[in-house]
Design brief:
The structure holds three protein chains of three kinds.
Chain A (H helix, E strand, L loop, with lengths): L1 H31 L6 H19 L2 H24 L7 H23 L13 E4 L2 E4 H23 L1 H11 L1 H6 L4 H27 L5 H16 L4 H18 L5 H18 L11
Antiparallel strand pairs in A: 1-2
Helix pairs in contact in A: 1-5, 1-6, 1-8, 1-9, 1-10, 2-3, 2-4, 2-8, 2-9, 3-8, 5-6, 5-8, 6-8, 9-10, 9-11, 10-11
Chain B lengths: L2 H24 L2 H27 L6 H18 L5 H23 L4 H21 L1 H4 L5 E2 L5 E3 L3 E3 L3 H24 L1 H11 L1 H7 L3 H27 L1 E2 L6 H14 L5 H21 L4 H14 L3 H11 L1
Antiparallel strand pairs in B: 1-4, 2-3
Helix pairs in contact in B: 1-2, 1-7, 2-7, 2-10, 2-11, 2-12, 3-4, 3-5, 3-10, 4-10, 7-10, 8-9, 8-10, 11-12, 11-14
Chain C lengths: L2 E10 L2 E11 L4 E6 L5 H9 L6 E6 L2 E2 L5 H7 L1 E4 L11 H9 L6 H14 L1 H5 L10 H13 L5 E5 L7 H16 L3 E6 L2 H7 L2 E6 L2 E7 H6 L2 H7 L2
Parallel strand pairs in C: 3-8, 3-9, 6-7, 7-8
Antiparallel strand pairs in C: 1-2, 1-4, 4-5, 9-10
Helix pairs in contact in C: 3-6
Classes of the chains: A mainly alpha, B mainly alpha, C alpha/beta.
Chain lengths: 286, 317, 236
């Protein structure tokens, strides 16, 4: 029983951090029909920038801010140079193009930071006793912080003018333009937001799992699964899906090894595609 | 096709074929092996072209077909004594075929993006299973086995030498190429291309698009599995690395840079890329992939027909 | 003239839809554009709006060329588009729909309030459903919303694409009244319609289009007297 509660906590923590990554990805897809194969690599870049900044300044929080801003700006530049020309082209091309980007980013990371893994020290040390375990406070803190970021995003989308613009552009790009909304700018900003959130996830997750140049792939794969299960373009859905899948994996790792527990998410994806392709957490389309 | 370029094509084909036949006799062992590997990867890239270049479906899971062909052959070679070449071939193809059936099932139900993601997920599922099921698959370390003899009962029976193995691989790859070429230029191939260009219209004309897609996936998977068997025969081991995504990614790179939809292009892409990696990686480790990646992305955006397609167009006008 | 199309040729892929359209709208004028289904009326409006780019010819607005200008700039210059299928933002509320036109540079809160109040005066039903999602409105209400939304841009000209399509006669009358009200405020209107009587009634001038070109042009009054021309082109 205690095992289950511990795994529930683990699942929730992982779920929140995954939700950070996935929500950016689903927004990007929802608004410009781009499946960003390089999204996980943005997480990786954020983690590296964060690690370097922590090493130089000694402050986790400064590192977080720096990483988010750097990668957000980088993301906007990437969108304007590489993805904008692809608007309206077939999905095949965008998948291939973002795949190429992913390759470049991964190799760039090796070039820039070397092949060894980095570490980020947690800003909150100390643990509390959860049954028989010493559970680090940081894990809860990271999840909470991730939740705050997602909450801020949600409020932004609901209330702010730019948030309305984003939602309008997601629903009907042409009509949004006809209403004077500068859709190209909105696209760049959404990509920047997605990239920034990915970077924040990399930094938050850094103390938990380390920073390596090929950590991106795993994030991309999981984020894809979450986005499909949650419904492409559906922000709330992807958050629920992230938590759902992470919980399932956490429970599964009680029975099989963690390496094998990932199969759970794969199976969920395949079942979703077979029976509810629009997403598990999406109301049945009319 | 105008007769002039037809003869030119076959002329080129013969020249290259002769070069490849002569290769093991003149090259040092390392490079001989290298050429054989290029042929095998070329076959793999070609198989992927059926889907990407002709039917318009991007598969990120070809490593699954490749890897399962490899492991299927390994299974046959390890369990049945004396080691039987034909059984290994059969086992590898069956294994790849089973995966192919799964993927084909999904191919008909999913749109492009979802299909690509699913193929990626599939290959990862197989990777995880192979990696962790150590008792059966050897886990991280893979499986090693010995090369079977080339035996046709009553006719021939000899052990492979490096040269004869090379010729065997060459024969298989050339036959595969000719067969695939025939298929892609047949009415069937035309329908595939029409599906790539405009699926709704093809369906509206009356073609049963699902059936064509299923056949395309099976073809692609079987030839990829064949490449896996050849790899197993050449190298005498099977490892989970070959089922990992990176292999699928490289195949896609060969396809795009060599030229999708040309069959020859992906082989050229494989050759180019492997040579590049060999030559350059002594000095620059993996950094050469940065400009390669940039060029790849630029090509996807501006030059979707790839190098060979671009040249082909230039030469045809 | 505030809007002028000169020999505009537009393609959809390989289809040559507009074969050299020339027309103009004066300030505050209500100009009708009649024609059968598929002759290119909607494409003409989209070419003005920048949603499709003319291959040849030019579009001028207030003396400046807007050919190929991105739609969001065209909108900011003062051209509003009310599309044929209304295209309200289904997952935004009525208020948020209106906001997409209100939230522009140089518009302070007071002016936004005034514009909103005016919209709700013209369209009281929208005022009752301020916080309702656009997609849950009835067909007629969505048409109202689409027009109100366009008015939020404070446009100098509104491109109205078949506003009465699929509406009950009572709603058609309401649309007619809106067109009049806008005309009184000095907003020019380019009205594309299949409803011939309405168009002849509401417009100052009328163009008749056939197969991607303007075939006939006349003051609405003349056409009302001589309906044979209309019958000839529209087979009505």
């Amino acid at each position: 029983m205690e095992q289950i509660i511990i795994q529930t906590v683990n699942g929730l923590v992982n779920g929140m951090i995954l939700a950070l990554v996935a929500s950016g990805l689903t927004l990007i897809f929802g608004i410009m029909d781009v499946v960003n194969f390089a999204h996980g690599d943005l997480v990786m870049l954020g983690a590296f920038v964060g690690a370097t900044t922590v090493a130089t300044t000694g402050s986790f929080w400064i590192a977080l801010v720096v990483a988010v801003l750097t990668i957000a700006i980088f993301g906007a530049l990437l969108q304007v140079t590489t993805l904008r020309p692809l608007l309206g082209r077939d999905p095949l091309t965008t998948i291939l193009a973002t795949f190429g980007m992913s390759l470049v980013l991964q190799k760039y990371a090796i070039w820039q930071w070397g092949p060894t893994a980095r570490a980020i020290r947690e800003p909150i040390s100390g643990q509390f006793t959860l049954f028989y375990l010493q559970y680090p406070w940081y894990r809860l803190g990271a999840a909470l912080f991730a939740g705050l970021i997602i909450g801020a995003l949600y409020l932004f989308l609901r209330r702010a003018t730019f948030g309305v613009w984003i939602r309008a552009s997601m629903q009907d790009r042409l009509m949004a333009q006809a209403m004077g909304i500068p859709v190209p700018l909105v696209h760049a900003v959404v990509f920047a937001i997605g990239a920034g959130m990915a970077a924040s996830s990399g930094v938050l997750f850094g103390p938990l799992a380390g920073v390596t140049h090929n950590m991106g792939f795993d994030f991309t794969l999981r984020a894809f699964i979450v986005v499909v299960v949650g419904g492409m373009g559906n922000l709330g859905g992807s958050i629920l899906a992230a938590i759902f899948i992470s919980l399932l994996e956490a429970y599964a790792s009680l029975i099989v090894t963690p390496a094998q527990a990932v199969i759970v998410s794969f199976v969920v994806l395949i079942l979703t595609l077979l029976f509810r392709p629009t997403g598990l957490f999406v109301p049945t389309p009319k | 096709m105008p007769p002039r370029s037809h003869t030119a094509y076959w002329a080129w084909f013969t020249v290259i074929l002769i070069l490849l036949i002569v290769a093991p006799l003149v090259l040092p062992e390392f490079w001989r092996r290298f050429v054989t590997e290029i042929l095998i990867w070329g076959l793999l890239a070609m198989s992927s072209d059926i889907l990407i270049g002709y039917t318009g479906m991007v598969s990120f899971g070809h490593s699954a077909f490749f890897g399962l062909g490899m492991y299927g052959a390994a299974a046959a070679l390890l369990t049945v004594k004396p080691a039987n070449l034909w059984l290994a071939l059969l086992a590898g193809l069956v294994a790849a075929g089973v995966v192919g059936a799964f993927v084909a099932f999904f191919a008909t139900r999913l749109r492009e993006i979802y299909f690509s993601i699913t193929t990626l997920v599939f290959s990862q599922i197989f990777y995880v299973i192979i990696f962790t099921w150590t008792e059966v698959t050897g886990g991280e370390n893979g499986l090693t086995f010995s090369q079977p003899a080339f035996r046709i009962p009553g006719l021939v029976d000899f052990r492979f030498t490096p040269a004869s193995l090379h010729w065997f691989v060459l024969a298989v790859v050339v036959l595969s190429y000719l067969l695939l070429r025939r298929i892609t230029q047949s009415p069937f191939g035309m329908v595939l291309q029409s599906i790539k260009e405009n699926e709704p219209r093809t369906r509206a004309i009356g073609y049963h698009v699902e059936r064509y897609k299923i056949v395309a996936v099976m073809l692609s998977g079987l030839f990829a599995g064949l490449a896996g068997v050849l790899y197993a025969l050449q190298n005498k081991f099977a490892a989970p690395d070959f089922v990992f995504f990176v292999v699928s990614g490289e195949v896609v790179i060969f396809n795009v840079m060599g030229g999708m939809g040309t069959l020859v292009g992906p082989i050229a892409g494989a050759a180019f890329f492997l040579v590049l990696r060999e030559v350059v990686s002594r000095y620059l480790i993996e950094y050469y992939l940065i400009p390669v990646g940039i060029i790849f992305t630029a090509m996807v955006i501006f030059l979707p027909q790839g190098l060979l397609g671009f040249l082909k167009r230039r030469l045809n006008t | 003239m505030i809007l002028r199309l000169d020999n505009v040729h537009t393609y959809y892929g390989k289809s040559h839809i507009l074969h050299g359209v020339t027309l103009e709208v004066g300030p505050g004028e209500v100009v009708g554009l009649l024609g059968r289904n598929g002759v290119g009326k909607s494409t003409t409006l989209k070419s003005v709006m920048g949603l499709v780019r003319p291959a040849e010819g030019g579009v001028t607005f207030e003396g400046k060329s807007i050919t190929g200008t991105p739609p969001h700039r065209v909108a900011r210059l003062g051209v509003a588009w009310v599309p044929e299928d209304r295209r309200v933002f289904r997952l935004l509320t009525v208020l948020e729909n209106l906001r997409t036109g209100l939230d522009r540079a140089g518009v302070d809160e007071a002016r936004k309030r005034r514009l909103l109040d005016r919209a709700f005066t013209y369209f009281p039903r929208l005022g009752e459903r301020k916080h309702q999602l656009g997609g849950t409105l009835s067909g007629g209400e969505q048409q109202m919303l689409a027009i109100a939304r366009a008015m939020m841009l404070e446009p100098k000209i509104i491109l109205l694409d078949e506003p009465t399509e699929g509406l009950m006669p009572r709603m058609v009358t309401e649309i007619r009244q809106i067109i009049d009200a806008l005309h009184r405020e000095g907003v020019a209107i380019l009205l594309v319609e299949q409803n011939v009587p309405l168009t002849l009634d509401a417009s100052n001038r009328v163009y008749i289009m056939e197969k991607g070109v303007i075939r006939h042009q006349a003051p609405a009054a003349d056409l009302r007297q001589n309906m044979s021309v209309v019958h000839e082109y529209l087979g009505v």
